[in-house]
Fold this protein.
Amino acid sequence: MSGRPVKRSLTLKGHRTSVSLEDEFWLAFRDIAKSKNTPINALAAEIDVERDPDVGLASAIRVFILNWYRS
């Protein structure tokens, strides 16, 4: 386990944004997108639209992943 966040770029609403997640979260996020047959950018956009504006995108993605594996 690396423990260090890795910054990667995503495209949301036609604009590039950077998100920092640990490698394990990136792997899980890709696996979920693949299982939903959804591009990772589209999944990130769904999460972005549904998140509280006071919550950062990286945090919202981590919680989404946690909830996915809990259900």
Remarks:
- The CA atoms of residues 51 and 60 lie 6 Å apart.
- Residues 57-70 form the longest helix (14 residues).
- The chain has a mean pLDDT of 95.
